[in-house]
Amino acid sequence: MQIITVAPIARGALQSALTYFSKEPIEVGMVVVAPIRTREVPAIVLLCREVSEERSSIRSSDYAIRKITRAKPRRIWLPAFLKAVEETSDLSAQKLGEVLLALTPKAILDAHLEGVLKESASKETNGKFEILATQGNTKTRYEEYQRLVRESFARHESVFVCVPTEEDVLRRSAELGHGILDYTFSLHSSISKKKIIEIWKNILKEEHAVLVVGTAQYLALPRRFKTIVLDEEHSHAWKTISRPQIDLRVFVEEYARACGGRLIIGAPILRAETHERIANGSIGEFGRISQHAREQTEIILVDPRKEEKYIREKTGRREMVLVSKELLELMQDARERSERVLLLSARKGLAPVTTCSDCGALVRCPQCETPLVVHRKESAIGSAQIFVCHGCGFMRVPENNVNETCPNCKGWKLQGVGIGIDRIDDEIAKLFPKTERFILDSERAKTRAQGKKIIEKFEKSDSGVLIATPMALPLLGSVDNTAIISIDSLFAIPDIRMSERIFALVLALREKTTGTLLIQTRADDTTIFEQALAGDLLKFTENELAIRKAFSYPPYGTIIKITLRGKRAEVASEMERLKTFLETYSPIVPGSIAKEPKNIFRMHMILKLAEGNWPNNELLGKLRALPMQFTIEVNPDHLL
Questions:
Q1: What is the CA radius of gyration of the chain?
Q2: To the nearest 10°, the Cα dihedral for 112, 109, 107, 631?
Q3: Distance CA 499, CA 547 (A)
Q4: 78-87, 243-252, 288-297: least confidently modelled range
């Protein structure tokens, strides 16, 4: 009889490790079904000991040790995969079982537990681990990856191209699979359970080298990949949006290291952290790290404030210019040449915020206090304006369908501030009433299929105009002309990587635009736009690293954000206790308590660790000891 320690493969388990006994011997790394309270969940075996070795501890235990009774133990993952998951959980300060669940497709886990898939054979991994990087436009990187796949196939070596989203999977597999379709496989979350299992089996039985294009969780595939390509490395989609909070790029690197293979990182603009590692020699070059992005796109940078000042001086009127003279000329020329135009804005709705002209107060959501966004709602009787909260989904029709009073001073002088895509649509409709317009945002396209349908209609149109948020970019092929109407509001988001995201956005637009790219900005400092429009990757990276170093942001330090949600009084008192618990690490509590839907309040704590001080075993133990109410994120994008 054995005493076994397991990690529950489930979200919300109170303990990261639990103890049971079993009549049959069970090896470390195998999966069993363990009873937890009133349910049974899969769990991975971490440690096995004979009962005879633990008699004294069993007798002194103040709880009864339960028995593993159901299901034959199964080996699901390769040792290299489990080692990478363990390293990722430590680096991310998350529970092993939760990370394992997040990195394994549910269909595959269920199929193993049901006995549909065979156990994974233990395979030896050997070889020297190395990381290489490439920076360049999509066409250049595709050509490099295609050569890589052909050379790997010639050596009978398989390749896994790992990308962040389903749309990336479909595009990459279509491009890279030319001529080798019989050995190319795509894996993403929209594939049905039955089809995933079928593809899984086909990959494992294929004797020829294979190319697999998929998202990170499909690296659970128990097949040896000599080379793993991590493309679109700069994308924020690599971060998980729910518990456990992990960066999937960390796992991909740890998996390649555990396999003793080669990892190739690629992007149009690599992250600042990656450039620092290239500079210190820990990452080599695959091909060439481009210092400039060269595209045959005409570039125009416009400040609408100059035109607004001219109007004010000539007429005395104060008005916001949505469509500058330069953009108007661009659209008129495009219409004459039957060219399509993409108009991009960072915000949905008519106006991102509504303020009182008398006291300056914002109109906020009564449930979570997020600023309400003015939207236009179409109905059988006409169009109406409504307030919508993008935080909790609250919706309200303004008083008399038009007016609204200030929540602070009860005044009537409320004004929409900012530029949303509905407001742009109204303006374009006035200027070009006969032009076919298409609008794409998360309200009009809740699924990829809906978004793709709007894009297809736009691409088939004659001199059509697509008014969209940045969510349109992954779905869009090429476009004749592009104008960024307004993305200045993105600079106000407390995201330490926002400059990288805006820079990458402009690079992507340069690449997709065959004619003219115009940017309207009211920012006083236009350096980032000038560098992006010029394709000056080197200068941008140097500036970004200098800022990171000044504030000890990654890669020059580690930031750990701890978030607590609950009732107001409890949140405040628990954060004080946590501050005392972690006082050795000089915790910072930025801002005040924020309100969320259903009377829930949120508060953050920030720990800033010097370079080289993470992972820290003592701190890791304390973080893992925190109750489930606390959410931990290592090197988060948002600090608030």
A1: 27
A2: 170
A3: 11
A4: 288-297
Distance CA 230, CA 248 (A): 10
CATH architecture type of domain 130-289: 3-Layer(aba) Sandwich (3.40)
Say if CB 6 and CB 44 are below 8 A apart.
yes
What percentage of the chain has pLDDT greater than the value 90?
52
Q: Which residues of 518-553 are buried (b: 16+ CB within 10 A; e: fewer)?
A: bbbbeeeeeebbebbbebbbeebbebbbeebeeeeb
Length of the chain: 640
Residue that the structure tokens 């030896």 belong to = 124
The per-residue pLDDT for range 131-186, each reduced to its tens digit, is 999 999 888 999 999 999 999 999 999 999 999 999 999 999 999 998 899 999 99
pLDDT for res 352: 67
- Based on the number of CB atoms within 10 Å of its own CB, is 90 exposed (0-12), middle (13-18) or buried (19 or more)? middle
Q: Measured at the alpha carbon of residue 326, what is the angle toward residues 321 and 330, in degrees to the nearest 5? A: 120
**CA 130 to chain centroid:** 25
The CB-based long-range contact list for 302-311 (8 Å cut-off, 24+ gap) reads 302/326, 302/327, 302/518, 302/519, 302/520, 302/521, 303/520, 303/521, 303/522, 303/526, 304/520, 304/522, 305/522
Mean pLDDT of 250-264: 96
- What is the CATH architecture assignment of 298-349+418-548? 3-Layer(aba) Sandwich (3.40)
> H or E element: which one contains 342?
strand 341-345
Which is more confidently placed, 619 or 22? 619
In the chain, where does the domain assigned CATH 3.40.50.300 lie?
A: 130-289, 298-349+418-548
Task: Name the 3-class secondary structure at 420.
Answer: strand
Token pair of 58 as six digits: 């069993």
Residue 415 in tokens: 């004004």
Across the chain, what does the average pLDDT equal? 87
Note the pLDDT of residue 384. Answer: 66
d(CA 210, CA 403): 63
The string of pLDDT tens digits covering residues 87-133 is 999 999 999 999 999 999 999 999 998 889 988 775 666 788 999 99
Tell me what the mean pLDDT of segment 500-518 comes to. 92
Q: Do residues 137 and 511 make contact, with C-beta atoms less than 8 angstroms apart?
A: yes
CA distance 497 to 340: 32
Domain 557-634 CATH assignment equals 1.10.287: no
End-to-end CA distance of the chain: 51
Instruction: Single out the residue of 562, 563, 555, 419 nearest to residue 496, CA to CA.
Output: 555
**Does residue 401 register a pLDDT over 60?**
no
- Is the pLDDT at 415 greater than 90, yes or no? no
Q: What whole-number distance in Å separates Cα of residue 265 and Cα of residue 129?
A: 14
Residues 6 or more apart whose CB falls under 8 angstroms from that of 80 comprise 125, 255, 258, 259
Contact 207, 183 (CB under 8 A): no
Quick check: 356 and 412 in contact, CB under 8 A? no
Distances (CA, A) of 59 to 5, 52, 64, 289: 17, 12, 10, 63
Q: What digits encode the pLDDT tens for the residues 55-77?
A: 656 555 655 677 776 657 788 99
Q: Are 377 and 387 in contact (CB under 8 A)?
A: no
In this prediction the pTM is: 0.87
The residue type of 442 is: S
